[in-house]
Amino acid sequence: MRTVVTRSSLGRVVGTGVLVGLAVAVLVVWDGRLGNGAWQTPSRVAAPAGLVILLVVVAGWLLRSDLDGWVAIQVPVTTLLGVVVFGGVAWGVTLDSATGSRTALVVLNFAGAGGAVGVLIGLFTAKQSATIRSLHTARDEYRALFDGIGDTVIVHDTRGRIIAANEVAAVRLGCDPSSLEGRSIDDVEGDAAFDGRHAAGGDRLVYETVHVTADGGAVPVEVSARLVRYHDAPAVLSVARDISERRASERELSQARDQLRALNRVLRHDIRNDMQIVLGHAELLDDHVDEAGRDHLETITDTGEHVVELTRSSRDLARTVAGGTELPLEAVSLSETLRGELDRRRKVFTDAELVLEGDVPDVEVRANDLLSSVFRNLLNNAVQHSDRDEPTVTVSADLLRGPHRVRVRVADDGPGIPAELEDDVFGRGQRGLESEGTGLGLYLVESLVDHYGGEVWVEENDPRGTVVVVELPLADRD
Asked: Is 242 exposed, middle or buried, given 0-12, 13-18 or 19+ CB atoms closer than 10 A?
């Protein structure tokens, strides 16, 4: 494992080496100038010995510290300066008044005191420099984070005066960041012409408004605001997200809903009513056509009924896609809905046998008036996909013991669904090659059941055929 020496660690190593070298130099001078008896005389030991110990301790601390390289060098530099200055002063004072070992002793004591002062000054300035550098780094990181947020960030005081803003705010509003400071937040946020939806959660207020740009434009935004302390004073931090794309999507969705509602009206009034007239006239012609025209009349009647069924599925599908405002959920009687649709399908499919097996639980499910469309499409699908002259469809319903749900099974004796189509059977427009259905029925079933909070899936019937299982949640009990 290779050790990487950085400028920071190298500076600490050099500083440590200088301090240790200085300690050794003091010992050498101390022993060389004062002789062998220097170790036994307390007056000769105090200052030099204290300096040596202090230098060794500081050297060890410096080596283990996290000071930057140039900051770490300050400690040995100030120490050397203290030794030189104090020692030089002592040498100058004693130069004419003392000689020999006494002069060396005075110089060493002053140099020791100066070194100790230099160490303390070096440590203080080093820590101060490290603290300042750390504060500058934290400030730069905070500013980078503040400016790096992709949303507009504005801080204003409790009077609404802007005291800080990030670069994104300046770019989005088309002005210089410094020009925002001191302005009122009301100059940035638009008036009540926008719909201004809002919600509060805990200590946070979320609302929608517009930001007015320098050129007079309006940008729709969602603002999340909360009370904070900024420069030791209460302030409001607001983060505004540009929701222009979301607004455009909502407008497109609203337009699509309007179009679907118009389609719903056309299907319900125009096409369906016209086809009812066609079927009525076809029924009147039943007694006036010969055998040669009988097949043509039956084709007209079958095609007309198919178109009517298509308008019903398309109408219900349009209501489903148009939005939740048209599909409120309520408590709907399962028994009445299921039995009623069975009776209506029996009148339509006179050649099929539609059987209700067992009793239908007398419960209410969470649905709406389109629940009958679910069962109508399942029964239509079971009969129309059958390859028998007289198909049999069996319907059953059971309450589940665990969750508050009910399960309805619609089983037919037709050819069944190929394994490769089982996963896609509920896809929009899926239909068999010989199917007489619209291709929308099962897609509508899944859409409605999912809206009700239920599930629908397909199983194999024994000995042949298909079972469609619908699981619905029971209505809440007050």
From this structure: middle
